[in-house]
Every structure is written in C-alpha cells, then in structure tokens.
Specification:
The chain is of the alpha/beta class and about 130 residues long. The strands form 2 sheets. A 5-stranded mixed β-sheet has the order 5-4-8-6-7, with helices on one face. Strand 2 and strand 3 form a beta hairpin. The protein starts with 13 loop residues before the first strand and ends in a 6-residue tail after the last strand.
Length: about 130
C-alpha cells in the first residue's frame, strides 16, 4: 500500500508498505528497523516476533521517545511483560499493533509533531 500523505520536510516518514517491505522516504527496507522522525536504524535484530528479546527492546528504550509503537509483524501479538521492562522503567508509553497499523499510526503522530519511535518487525522469509 502506498501512503499519499505529504512528507514533512526534513523528517522520516513511511511512504509505502506491503507483506515484504516497508519504505521510509521512498527507501525500501526488508529487515526489521527502528524509526523516529529524525533517525532510521536499519537491521534491528528481530527477524520475527518470536525472536524478540529484552536486548532488542533495550535498544528501543535508548531512543528515549515518550511514545513507542511496536509493530509485531503481520498480526498483533503482545510480548511478555519482562521484555518491556526497559521501556516501562523509563515511563515510555508502548502501543503494540501489527506492523502495518504501526506504520499508519507513526505517520499520523509524526505529522502532528509528536516525539514518537516505531520499532517495526518485518518477518524475514525463511
């Protein structure tokens, strides 16, 4: 799906997605990544929801954004509370949704000028 909302100048937005990729400012990404309006961190380790670790979410916590959107792949799945500890301890709000819903929500919050981070899992084909 292509997203047609205008890209806010100088900020990183999600411009398209499908089952195999997510595009950030037109750049096609096929591996999980972290995104804020100012920063793209490619090759975030989890290749699937089942491989998500506490260390992976510690990397998200280090982005220090008050709002975190956790895109869990093709369907919404909730991680064990122990995995979210680093985010909860920093009093960061975490919203869990499927990755495509997280893409849409990220764009809305980013366009509103909110300090948001998206941690998006793209399931790698085996």
């Amino acid at each position: 799906m292509k997203l047609h909302s205008p890209v806010t100048a100088g900020l990183l937005a999600i411009t398209a997605y499908d089952a195999e990729h997510i595009a950030v400012n037109g750049r096609r990404l096929t591996r999980s990544f972290l995104l804020t309006p100012q920063r793209l961190i490619e090759d975030w380790p989890p290749a699937s929801f089942d491989s998500l670790t506490e260390s992976d979410l510690q990397a998200v916590a280090e982005l220090d954004c008050p709002i975190v959107l956790l895109g869990t792949g093709p369907r919404q799945r909730f991680p064990a509370p122990v995995l979210l500890r680093s985010l909860i301890e920093r009093r960061m709000g975490v919203e869990v949704m499927d990755s495509h819903a997280a893409c849409r929500t990220y764009n809305i919050l980013m366009a509103e000028g909110r300090d948001v981070a998206a941690a998006l899992i793209i399931e790698c084909a085996s």
